[in-house]
Amino acid sequence: ILDRAAVQANMRYEMEGRNLFVMPDAPVLKHYRIDYLNLAREARSEIGASTSISQSSRGGTSNSSSTALSNTSTNRFWETLTQNLRDLLRETDKVIPEGDSSAAPAPQAAAAPAGSASAPAAPAAAPVRYRESASVIANPESGVVSVRATFRQHLRVREFIDRVMKSATRQVMIEATIVEVSLSDEYQQGINWSIVRKGVPLLQIGPAGAATPSGVPVSGVIPSMLNYTPSRLGNVTTQIVAALRLLESFGNTKVLSSPKISALNNQAAMLKVTEDLVYFTLTGNYTPGTSGSPPTFTITSTPNNVSVGLVMSVMPQVGEGDEVTLILRPTLSRVVSYVEDPAVPIFLSQARNDGVNLNEISSRIPQIQTREMESVIKVRSGDTAVLGGLMRDDVSGSTDQTPGVGDVPGLGELFKYKKKSSNKSELVIFLRPTVVTSASLTGDLQSFEPHLSEALRPMPERLRQAPAAPDTSVGGQQ
Questions:
Q1: Which of 108-112, 277-281, 334-338 has the lowest mean pLDDT?
Q2: Within 10 A of 178 (CB to CB), how many other CB atoms are there?
Q3: Are 421 and 395 in contact (CB under 8 A)?
């Protein structure tokens, strides 16, 4: 009742023991606790491809094509919160003279009566500066925001802070399973997802609507998501295992990685499981010789490294009804071969022509194959989204020959047998976001407890499973 009366009568009240104090609704200072990291983050990502392999000469024509997609995410929580509170107070703020919250307007000089001598002119009043009565003071290091505002404004501030903190502190557990399927001969066009849907009725595959980074829609090989029905299937892990078993009917299945990562609402997270390969680039410098001095060759070796493995970046946004919007970018890379730097043999040949004896030098550069995709999807908490369609061709060859005769130039080709084989594989990614309300082994993360080692289990659980102490008393009596 007092709250409603205070809003209607433009007043505020305070309770001190059994005493009730009612006073005008003047601005007062209140402190609000904000439990959030004092952190400013900026995430950038870019994915693209180019078909240009050379530059056109002057007066000529060029034939090139490039596609690029870049994303930038800036998260400055404290700066945004402070500015939002000031904007919120500015709409209902009072403007008062600076330095005095209760200053009255300056009195005006009375008019002189008719026929009398004019009164001396009053001195000019000093200009009055005004300021806003409300103010916001933020201290990110201690997690405190102090607001000077009226009772009505404090009600709006409290409502706004509660809404912001409820959304900003929501957490999402993201489970991913990356599978590579070596397709058999009858499924060289890719996985037939209609067979998967018939084999597991609980997996309801939605219509394909995904697109490649270049914007070209792909139909039939990229299903949108797998819907999960809790009343019909209690364990989501069983759902994914059933899908993996059906994928084995299309070829050999290999699980490449099963990362799990947690992220706060609208906060980017990255998981990286890679191996840094080191290779060297050589730079040669040749100085011609003069009379009395031989030519000199200087070779400089520069180390370089390239990361090979799995890199996955993801940023979730939790909406109403626990619907999670994800922007994710999985990148999988591997070394397919090594190539020799063509400049090294040329440099060695030039040195040997000038009479310099140099040993053989090898400069091998790794060739990296990268498979990556970037997409924005919306999934309900607990559902499993499926991303697929990334296919790869591996061509290998072997040569068998008749011993002795096969080495004869020209004629030996008649006694050789060359075999080429092609293996096509498809990459499938299962992605399951889950909104976490209690991030503990006794809460939403209870299903992960069996996978923890004995040392990481909670102490009460370890005590319950501890064996009974042996009886060391004589005759079994205490």
A1: 108-112
A2: 20
A3: yes
CATH node for 1-46+71-98+130-169? 3.30.1370
- Measured CA to CA in angstroms, residue 182 lies from 142, 146, 453 at distances of 55, 61, 33
Token readout for 169 is 């502190």
Pairing of strands 144-149, 28-33: antiparallel
Judge contact between 205 and 270, C-beta under 8 A: no
The sheet carrying 144-149 orders its strands as 28-33, 144-149, 135-139
What pTM was estimated for this model as a whole? 0.64
Query: Over the stretch 190-223, which tens digit does the pLDDT of each residue have?
Result: 777 776 666 554 444 443 333 333 333 333 333 3
* Domain residue ranges of the chain, discontinuous segments joined by +: 1-46+71-98+130-169, 171-397+421-465
- Beta strand pairing call for 364-372 and 323-340: antiparallel
d(CA 248, CA 431): 19
Contact 420, 395 (CB under 8 A): yes
Which residues have a Cβ under 8 Å from the Cβ of 50 and sit 6 or more positions away?
Answer: 64, 65, 66, 67
Q: Which has the higher per-residue pLDDT, 295 or 171?
A: 171
